[in-house]
């Protein structure tokens, strides 16, 4: 955590603070993920799942909240990093005054364990490396009992235990140094030193050491095989490939649930309270996710995701939530942690998410759109898909007039948000199409009547003739970036005059230095103090809109700007602070990367259209 810090006034000690969000890279085993800073410090890690309590939490505080540094001892060492080909194996080359080394960081895939490998390979000369290990289980609330052990002839194992958690660290010897365990070792050209951390339940014996050479080979081959069939022409193909890899790296392999991000509580407003836990699965990502996976040939992943979706929403439709845990857990109460002070003082740090209790009318529409697209793209009919959809539509028949909290999870009073109303329309529209196009059974006349009634209502109350634009909610004069989704779900064409008028209003009201805000937090009653940054997914939605309406040059120009905001290894967070030239919000954000893929696809499709 080099370069940023503060002095502790009582003890006069220098305390390192988290790096800029864009300075972190992710590694993953498709069960969990770790965030590694450019300085060689793992500052965020939750084992064994993405949503488990952290054991390294320095990202939301400082080094005292847990981190694992492996880097040259020379402070002036220069780092350059990249992923190995089409994988999430991260290689950092360190250049020092005495030589060069490469550190390969990865989480072995497929071994049904929770390991992190940090392989140090000498390239030239001899480089002295240092380690600083600070394990703090349970969101930095539990300092473990640490001891050196000798087991099975391994005299260099360090074991740390607290409550249900334990880790064993194998590699160069570490010694206690105040609140941390530290050590140094030399690596000469041609030499290799491996350091491996393994998490395991504390009531079991420590797992045996892994074969690092085999783990690198198996993990690298698996990722290369998974990405081998990706085809995407055009100037954004590298970004599309990396985004699909991010999506896979955030997918819990056992369950199929896709975490919205690998982190919690990274601020949407630096120093503010817009800090949320995104390590869960949002239903509204279903349509976008299925579309992206199917369009790029990943039928197995799409079927896995659909199976997760059907399991999660099974039961009484009145109980459908907007979000679930990775295995479909429903109980995700939001609470504030006192053990983590927040990213550079942005508090509170939250785990769980209070939005789980909101009613958001668009969610059933998202599910209906997703499952309809699965049929259109040729996925075999899932056994329980249509009965579940029939139950959802029976619920919608009774509750289609309800107000809701909207796509942005407003913490103010419920309203008739125009985007939500369009997604209610989409639910009935896809139900009608299921009968008309696929011969499924249902009260199609009722669904047609309600679909038409909702459209008439939207045109009367959700469109402002004065502004020549759809509006954020009934009675509002403001626009909302979610209106860019209307053509995506087939409510109207992208070049419809009403949509072009809406785009013009979004360009006037929501563009901040060329990027798109979700809405004006100063005028929208969202229950929080105003202030946030442009939302990257919304900006990609505008790219898609430009491309679909014949504005190819504008689409390419905005797309170039957006992909340029990715960090050095191609990752995007949720938002971007234009003034501060820094990423903001949780990272890497699945929705940002999914929207990137859709935008790139739209540009390719739009090349055959005349330019406006």
Layout of helices and strands:
Blueprint: E1 5-7, E2 14-16, E3 24-28, E4 33-37, E5 41-46, E6 54-56, E7 67-72, E8 78-83, E9 90-95, E10 99-106, E11 114-134, H1 137-140, E12 145-151, E13 154-162, E14 165-170, E15 175-177, E16 180-188, E17 192-201, H2 212-227, H3 237-249, E18 281-282, H4 285-295, H5 299-313, E19 323-324, E20 335-337, E21 349-351, H6 362-376, H7 385-399, H8 418-438, H9 444-461, E22 463-464, E23 469-470, H10 497-509, E24 511-512, E25 515-516, H11 536-548, H12 552-563, E26 575-577, E27 582-584, H13 590-606
Antiparallel strand pairs: 1-2, 3-4, 4-5, 5-6, 5-7, 7-11, 8-9, 9-10, 10-11, 11-16, 11-17, 12-13, 13-14, 14-17, 15-16, 18-19, 20-21, 22-23, 24-25, 26-27
Helix pairs in contact: 3-13, 4-5, 4-6, 4-13, 6-7, 6-8, 7-8, 8-9, 11-12, 11-13, 12-13
Explain this structure.
With 612 residues, the chain is α+β, with helices and mostly antiparallel strands. It has 2 domains: 17-203, Beta-galactosidase, Chain A, domain 5, CATH 2.70.98.10; 231-606, Glycosyltransferase (Alpha/alpha barrel), CATH 1.50.10. Helix content is 30%, strand content 23%. The chain contains 13 helices and 27 strands. The protein has helices spanning 137-140, 212-227, 237-249, 285-295, 299-313, 362-376, 385-399, 418-438, 444-461, 497-509, 536-548, 552-563, 590-606; strands at 5-7, 14-16, 24-28, 33-37, 41-46, 54-56, 67-72, 78-83, 90-95, 99-106, 114-134, 145-151, 154-162, 165-170, 175-177, 180-188, 192-201, 281-282, 323-324, 335-337, 349-351, 463-464, 469-470, 511-512, 515-516, 575-577, 582-584. The strands form 7 sheets. It has a 15-stranded antiparallel β-sheet that branches. It has a two-stranded antiparallel ribbon with strand order 1-2. β26 (575-577) and β27 form a beta hairpin. The longest helix has 21 residues, at 418-438. The radius of gyration is 25 Å and the shape is globular. It starts with a strand and ends in a 6-residue tail after the last helix. The model is unreliable at 6-12 (pLDDT under 50).
